[in-house]
Specification:
Blueprint (H helix, E strand, L loop, with lengths): L10 H40 L14 H35 L2 H45 L1
Helix pairs in contact: 1-2, 2-3
């Protein structure tokens, strides 16, 4: 059985949640547009790089032809979940406040929690990669100094 709390929100809290929902929708739309640009750029880079020769002085990126497009597609895929969670938060919050439905508002807050959790884990992963990279550089340069 769920532990329900009869929580009342004052007008300032409701207005803050409405504003938060509107700004979150704006940010989500901008995020989806950014993801679309990344996919379009990946397609453009793929077609542009395919006309260049594989390895020559004119094309130092010949070895990376497929990788660049693949990289942009992977980035777009990684950016999608937090943007989707933000969109879900915005739509559920707006609908929940409009209909005064606490379950919809609860779903909105769960989506916001998922958004923040995804970003937090992403930041921890990036910090870990930085640490591994720094340690790798130190080891590499230390081994080069011995020779």
């Amino acid at each position: 059985m769920e532990n329900e709390l009869d929580l009342k929100l004052n007008q300032a809290a409701i207005e803050a949640l409405k504003s938060s929902g509107k700004w979150s929708m704006f940010l989500a739309i901008m995020g989806f547009v950014g993801i679309a640009f990344m996919v379009i750029l990946a397609i453009f880079m793929s077609s542009f790089m395919s006309i260049l020769p594989d390895k020559s002085a004119a094309n130092p990126f010949g070895a990376f032809k497929g990788f660049i497009s693949f990289f942009y597609i992977i980035l777009a895929a990684l950016y999608f979940p937090p943007i989707y969670y933000l969109y879900k938060y915005a739509t559920d919050m707006s609908n929940g406040l409009l209909t005064k439905n606490s379950d919809t508002i609860s779903n909105a807050l769960v989506s916001l929690k998922s958004h923040h959790k995804y970003l937090g884990i992403s930041i921890l992963v990036i910090i870990g990669l930085y640490i591994v990279g720094i340690v790798g550089f130190i080891i590499f340069f230390a081994s080069m100094a011995k020779h």
